[in-house]
Design brief:
3 helices; Thiol Ester Dehydrase, Chain A; single chain; globular; binds coenzyme A; two-stranded parallel sheet; 30% helix; alpha+beta
């Protein structure tokens, strides 16, 4: 299967925060943001895989800045790396106040998707060809993130996470 350029999967989604999306403080509810992120990253994954995908995991998401009623949420998603049947998608989330012309980064997150066939069985996906410096960095680091999430999911023994171990050893050495 031919590798595909990382940028081919780029997907952007904009949502205006309406009253029904907010809590009683007038801030966007975290669950609604996670829902929009799931949709946007699934579209990026489907673009790359040219196949339907299911969400396999959502990495820890922290909310650094609250998003207010009336602001526009912009979600930018792109596949960082493909493995066998799964892909990792990175997202950057921005909040925009259009009248004031202010755009601030709200958070960043990684979701993992698995391409499946008509019987819901995982199927192989094309590899990713990173091009820019950032794409290459994210592509390299994706291996460690994958090992971390598979350990947390109980699907990988820590002693078999070779790349992750070498990263921890590097930090130990520096410390
Ligand atoms: C995701 C799913 C297809 C994985 O199926 P599975 O039988 O566990 O298959 P495998 O163990 O062979 O794993 C298949 C791929 O999923 C990946 N995977 C499984 N669990 C994962 C997790 N928690 N985090 C990241 N990747 C995961 C595996 O690493 C593997 O990827 P690879 O082929 O690129 O190495 C299956 O668990 C599923 O259908 N889950 C429900 C998905 C869903 O309904 N999502 C909607 C939100 S609830």
């Amino acid at each position: 299967m031919e590798a595909k350029r990382a940028q081919e999967s780029y997907t952007e989604m904009n949502e205006l925060v309406l009253p029904n999306d907010t809590n009683t403080f007038g801030n966007l509810m975290g669950g609604r943001l996670l829902y929009w992120m799931d949709i946007c990253s699934a579209m990026a994954a489907q673009k790359h895989c040219k196949n339907v995908v299911v969400t396999a995991s959502v990495d820890n998401v922290s909310f650094k800045r609250s998003i207010r009623l009336g602001e526009v949420v912009t979600i930018q998603a792109q596949v960082t790396r493909a493995f066998n049947t799964s892909v990792e998608v990175r997202m950057e989330i921005f909040a925009q106040n259009l009248p004031l012309g202010i755009k601030e980064k709200s958070n960043e997150a990684y979701y993992t998707f698995v391409a499946i066939d008509e019987n819901s069985r995982p199927i192989p996906v094309p590899q990713v060809q990173p091009e820019t410096e950032l794409e290459c960095k994210l592509h390299n680091e994706a291996l460690q993130r994958r090992q971390m999430r598979l350990i947390l999911a109980g699907k990988l023994k820590p002693e078999n996470a070779v790349e992750l171990k070498s990263l921890v050893e590097l930090f130990d050495h520096k410390g």
